[in-house]
Amino acid sequence: MNGGGYAPVAAARRQRPMPADRSTSNSNETGLLINVIRSLTSSVSEDQREAEKSRLEKGYKESGARIDRLVKDHQQDVEKCLVSFRDVSSNISSETVVFFYPARLIQSPDCRERIHNVRNALHTVKSLLELRRDDLKKLWHENAQQKSVCDIMAKLEELREAPSKIENLISKEQYQLAADTVTESRELINGRLARVEGLSHLSAEIERFTKVLIDRINDTLVNMLVVEPFEKHLLHIIRTIPEHRINQNPYCSSLLTKSRSASSPVSSFHNTTGKSRIVSSVYALSTLFRTVEERNWDVDRLMMLGKNMIDKMIVNTVQVMKIGAGIDESNEGDTTHLKQLMQLLSAQFDSASQKHAEFGVLVEKQLGRNDVLTSFWRSAQSAIEVVVSEHLDINPLLEKQNMMGSVGRKQLFRFENTACAAPNTTSSSHQAKAVICKPSAYNIKVIFPILSRLMETTEKNMNDSPCELRRFMHSFVMRVFVERVKGELASRIEGALRGGEAVRISSNKKILPSCEKVLTLCKDIHDLIISLELYADRFAALWILVLTDYFKNMTDVYEKMTPKTADPSMPSSESAPTRCQKISAAWTADDDISRLLMSLPNWHTASMSPMTPAVESEQDVGERNKKESEILIGNLGHQAQNSLNENNLITDMNDIKMFASLHESLRWFSDEIRELVYSLPAPVKLMLDTCMVQVQLKDGQMIDNNSVPSAIEDCVRRLESIADSCLLLLHIEIRVHCFFHLAPLVKYRNTSSNNEVDPEVVALGKDLHQFHDNLKDVLSSSKLSYVFDGLGHLCASLFIHYSQFMPRLTEAAKKRVCRNVWGVQQRLSRITNRRESDLDRARAFFDLLLDNTPDGILAIVPEKRSLFSATELNYLLALSVRSDKTLSNQPGALEKRQSTLNSILSQRK
Prior knowledge:
single chain, two-stranded antiparallel ribbon, transport, exocytosis
């Protein structure tokens, strides 16, 4: 081909003129580009240039995205155009190949003609292609219009079927797909098909199903968040109830059906399907509600529906429990059923709280709300307040004002939506369903521990302390319950101590009825302290108040039984001192005498528990009796002879028995109170130890800055002091009777009477028997022994002591004195079941008068020295001298023999 020296020549390319519109567009674009460049170069501020640059980049990206979208939408047309262009281009290339032959070939006429023909053909093709391009463009526009019309028709068909599709998806509980369908339909109606007329009815139908969808989603969520957690616990109760009783209530019947079905809440509560339903429901709500306001509105509505459902489920729970426990109009429930109800409600709220916590995480993620759990516990508190108020006998309309204090404070009661808000028939029916036992303020004892756990759970979940429920309970306890308990305690203790009730002795018990009643009050307060630990200090203060009142009453009872008279040795005036008319009461009140008597071993023996009796040797008993006799004779020996009269004695055996009952009752009461204090839980004791109280006693004495346990112990000790005074008084009183009856024996009397013993001995024996008969059924054996033990030694000491006041004794009088000693010994032995050998010493004392003269007595002193004291031997010698006919009239006879006796006694030492 290159042999002729010709090089191939490329075909000439004709410059095709630009269309007018394209040139105009290019000029516009060129002008725009120039303006942009000018603005970029002439801008003074760097921020302005950056802003212009950002705007250009954004426009470039939008243009690129638009071109990509247009290419994607017209992909088929573009491909067809490219294929057609490729075919035409290949055909042209085959026709124009001749131009690449050597030039010498073109010089042939045939070749020139052929080239001319080809050129003409090319012009023709070019014209045809230009015409075809316009036709293709026109057809392309028509095709695009047809596709758009078809697409609109398809969307209209989908829109027409949307309501039925949404309804079908709702019935299948496919809420997320239904929400997507609603969203797509709304976008079509408000977007692409906004200008299409006649869609208003279809739009209204879709909105109607949208509301149905939202309601169904909310109902489903309420059912899963509230109903299922509550019914999960009720199904366990249903399975324990006989079927014939279940069929009496429609709700129980429905629960029984659920328990038998495979899709019961128990089986589906924690499964994956249940969780996916919650997730699907939340996603559906987030799809349906685009704006924050709409989402917040629906969440608030959902929480309100949940609150109403909680109230309804509580009523259903009470119904199920009533049927399970067989509670009806003829069979009322008690606090045990109330406690079970509150425990069940607590478990139900815990289960519902767990579901709300899971739900709250999804809501916070999808809807932007983080107060779901808080709203639930706020509704739960409101529902619990209603239940508590109905069972605590609180009138919500009246008590609210009392418990609120001022108008501006936050409300603690919210009963606007309950049947209790208005006194109508609905209210009574609602109350009949929601109350499981008789309302009473004291029901708080069984439910407060459960409420405390609920309050702690609420505060933990709401991160709010104190929570509203705690404020409600605090207001009720502090402003209503404590005052109500205080008033009832005052009424009950007044009834227990009114009139003769405080001193009435039960026919078959040792303990006073008033003491039992007061102890019952203290046990009730003890139960309140344990049940309401947070308010232990308040109820402990009431405890101290009851003990203080009882101490005052017992003090009054004791003082009435031991009346006082004005001291005759003092000037007469209104403020003159008084003294006890009864010798035993006066000695008991005397600190020195009572302290001495209580220091003796027999007192400690009587005070100790019978399980741990004190052990005394015979020598110890003798020393103790001797010391006690010396104390009594030293204080009453001369008074008994001169001024002791019947008014100084307690002769009413009912009073004697009362003193014994008072002692045993107060001792028993004190032990019981200490046991109650000891049984308090350790946290309560720790709280009470840090609580200081002030106590005012009957005499105006004020005990301040004492801890509660110390104040209680102080009250108990004061009651024990009254009990000890009663026992000591009995111990002294029976000995005062011995003084009273034996003192007259020193007087001279006619011995011609045929009676074996003097009337005083008979009267003493009668008193001793009456004492024993009235005390044996009341006092314990150790305390009865304390009253009667030592009487033999005292009587023997009295006979010997009173011998110094006896006048001259005849032989018959000496024998009579010996019979009197024997008579006392016999009567006392019948009571104590012992020989009372101490009286043998008194008989031996007077037997020496029968067998010996004064000088004979001096002769036997060395061998009788261990039996009698020096003072007693002096009494014996003086009586012997007075009874001797010769020596009694001889001056100095007694002094001479007393000197001899002292010499003998000193030698013995």
